[in-house]
Amino acid sequence: MAGLLASVVKYASVSVAISVALYAALLGLLTTASFQSHVVYLHSIQMTWFKDLNVPETFGFLRNQVTPFSLRTADGERLYAWHVLPIELYRKHELELVAEPVGFVPDITSRHAFRLLRDDPDARLVIHMHGAGGTVGSGYRVPNYRALSAGQPGKIHVLTFDYRGFGRSTGIPSESGLILDAMTVLDWAMNVAGIPPSRILIFGQSMGTAVSVAVANHLALQFPPVTLAGIVLVAPFVDVPTLVSTYRVAGTIPILSPLARFPLLFNYLHRFIRDKWLTKDRIAQYVRAHEANAEKYRLTIIHAEDDYDIPWHHTPMVFWHAVNASVPAGISYEDLEMRKLESKIDLGAAGSVMEWRTDHGVIREEILKTGLHDVVMGYPIVTMAVMRSFESTDPFFTS
């Protein structure tokens, strides 16, 4: 019996030692730029097995409902993109669209779908910024495109793209690189497709929320400022240093959370985080800029309580940073929580809604009971958020 116990203890000790060694090796690798990039962006994970992105029909779209094309960034990278037509508009022009060749298009301006976007003064455009990992065709992103245009299926187009290093896009991802990518797409939308900012909405999910806020803030700080129809963020995070404190890769492998009991080591390792994605600071700058310029803005933040990838408590923090920036004297997190007790709308199983209004803007927090990290993207709550944003710039949009 004693021998058996000794063997079990020895086996357990060896297992613990191996686990500690592997974790230490992981931490060491995380201090290197290349490995850290793969962990943060997961860009090598395609999640579109046995399907060709240049054949969108295999993802459930109608023939030529999606136009695959590419954009060139200022630093020479090529971004792979899809232009997704709303279903009712497609129905009206089905014969012309079906008659065109399928597949990747070297010059999208030659296509009928592009002209339907450019030449319609009522057209709206949602620029979709996806999360880490995968491509434009991965997972729940395809149902998301349908939800984005469902409110006005004759008017709302979707433009989605893969950041550098993702899918068929060239390059290596970085914070500055992804921001440049998003700016490239917005520039194309405004200057090639000719869609004014008031008819463009940015939608971001997960990692895409950080990119969305960074780009919207950049536009707001320009002179003159560029004001969009709105921003919709699903499952945002405060910043990367805060996120890695609880984040688990693929929902299972912890990053820094086991070290939370050792503040000195924990804080030391934070120094090695290259791309910090400080959403909390950028969203505050975005709100302050719009308030100072007396420009109208609409910001919607959505999160599900059962999100196991990015804990939902990030959203109340992001919401507070935005609201605090809208108040000249500021408001504490605790005071805002007290205001929520008075103003928050309890929707039962559907969650809750809190809306903060100023003379210039609306900041809306929507917390769902269920929806996980990705499934929520196809929910009607996304459709409603898009419609509220477009209606805020044009009350007659739905008529």
Secondary-structure map with pairings?
Elements: H1 2-30, H2 33-41, E1 66-72, E2 78-84, H3 87-92, H4 94-99, H5 112-118, E3 124-129, H6 141-149, E4 156-161, H7 175-191, E5 200-205, H8 207-220, E6 230-234, H9 240-244, E7 248-249, E8 253-254, H10 263-270, H11 279-293, E9 297-304, H12 314-326, H13 333-343, E10 345-346, E11 352-357, E12 361-368, H14 380-393
Helix pairs in contact: 6-14, 7-8, 8-11, 11-12
Spell out the key features of this protein.
two-stranded antiparallel sheet; 2 domains; 399 residues; alpha/beta; ten-stranded mixed beta sheet
Structural summary, described in words:
By secondary structure, this protein is α/β, with parallel strands linked by helices. The protein has 2 domains: 2-30; 44-257 and 277-393, 3-Layer(aba) Sandwich (Rossmann fold). Helix content is 41%, strand content 16%. It is built from 14 helices and 12 strands. The protein has helices at residues 2-30, 33-41, 87-92, 94-99, 112-118, 141-149, 175-191, 207-220, 240-244, 263-270, 279-293, 314-326, 333-343, 380-393, and strands at 66-72, 78-84, 124-129, 156-161, 200-205, 230-234, 248-249, 253-254, 297-304, 345-346, 352-357, 361-368. The longest helix is centred in the N-terminal third of the chain and has 29 residues, at 2-30. The protein is globular, with a radius of gyration of 23 Å. The model has no long low-confidence stretch (mean pLDDT 91).
